[in-house]
Design a protein that fits this description.
- The protein has one domain.
- The chain is built from 2 helices and no strands.
- The radius of gyration is 15 Å and the shape is elongated.
Length: about 70
């Protein structure tokens, strides 16, 4: 994976976090809090998984095991 792809995925992860909060906020206008959290949770978990994967890739690059090209 090259560095520009890594940065694009990082921006995508933060975009997913933002979309999750938008979903929670707009759903909260028409539904109870529990429904809003349940609606936004899958997007937030996807963002967390993507960020966790990026952290692992960054650590592998930092240690020199699998460098980003």
């Amino acid at each position: 994976m090259d560095r520009s792809r890594f940065v694009a995925l990082a921006f995508a992860a933060f975009g997913l976090v933002f979309v999750s909060f938008l979903i929670r906020g707009t759903t909260r206008l028409v539904a109870p809090y529990g429904v809003a959290v349940a609606a936004s949770a899958p997007v937030l978990f996807a963002a967390a998984g993507l960020l966790a994967g990026l952290v692992v890739l960054a650590l592998l690059d930092l240690t020199g095991i699998r460098p980003l090209t």
